[in-house]
Write a structure and sequence with these properties.
single chain; 5-stranded mixed sheet; 5 strands; Protein-Tyrosine Phosphatase, Chain A; about 10% strand; alpha/beta
């Protein structure tokens, strides 16, 4: 069988040149995998959504895997879903419309948090999650403008959702107000919505300890994603995966190898 190749190292990924969307298609022993690596968008008329729909209809999957957790708001109409929940939400919308089973390909939030907090200070881990959500809120704000009050309400809801998913946050640290203060003490400057620089936490950057934490998060997530893709193929014939393109770039060599070992 040979050793399975490892995920791409982030030193290499940070220098890689690629264009998104990127799509890989694998077939063997009656199994079919279509893996779409997207850029993130909440613009309902973005061509990214047309590509996802085209690949969905072409494959006619019997199982769909999407990025993120299971809390994406899904609306009756496609455009509202795209505007609020982007590509993960639209992928779920397509699956529901066509009566196709679907699931998140992510690790459980609690398992990931416990792994990261065994390696780093828990507050810094939580700050990385906060930064990730602020970045997502800024992208959403670009096509769906919100007030500061709405943004802060969304962030407090996000903290409640994390607690509901088993992440232990001390009661006196469970408000966004606390994390704004911790952000300022960590970075030496206030958190300003609309001007937040996401490079301070991106896994392919090397600026702060949050970059290190997010790299560890991504390694854990990517390993779990590949396992979940292969498990889905064990139990289904045609699997569609839609996820942020950076994950596909990092996973591609391992996905191709593991698919070939199992199904050819």
């Amino acid at each position: 069988m040979g050793c399975s190749p490892k995920l791409m190292r982030y030193e290499k990924f940070s220098k890689a040149q690629y264009r998104l969307p990127k799509i890989i298609k694998l077939n063997g022993e009656g199994k079919g995998l279509v893996y779409i690596g997207t850029y993130h968008t909440n613009n309902p008329v973005d061509s990214m959504f047309t590509i996802i729909e085209k690949e969905f209809l072409s494959l006619n999957p019997d199982f769909v895997l999407h990025e993120g957790g299971n809390n994406w708001p899904i609306y009756a109409d496609a455009d509202s879903t795209k505007r609020i929940s982007g590509e993960p939400g639209y992928t779920i919308w397509l699956a529901k419309k066509n009566n196709i089973r679907y699931a998140s390909l992510e690790p459980k939030e609690q398992a990931e948090y416990e792994h990261l907090s065994s390696l780093y200070d828990y507050r810094k881990v939580l700050l990385m999650y906060i930064c990730r959500q602020v970045d997502q809120q800024q992208r959403f704000h670009a096509s769906n403008p919100m007030t500061i009050e709405e943004f802060e309400r969304n962030m407090n809801y996000f903290l409640e959702m994390m607690k509901g998913n088993g992440i232990k946050i001390p009661e006196n640290e469970s408000t966004f107000n606390f994390w704004k203060g911790y952000y300022e003490s960590f970075f030496g400057e206030p958190l300003v919505f609309g001007k937040f620089d996401p490079s301070v936490y991106y896994p392919n950057q090397f600026k702060t300890e949050l970059n290190d934490i997010n790299r560890s998060s991504d390694v854990f997530r990517n390993q779990t994603m590949v396992e979940n893709i292969m498990n889905a193929l064990d139990n289904n014939n045609r699997v569609l995966v839609v996820v942020g393109g950076g994950h596909l770039i990092v996973q591609e060599k391992k996905v191709r190898h593991d698919f070939k070992q199992r199904f050819r």
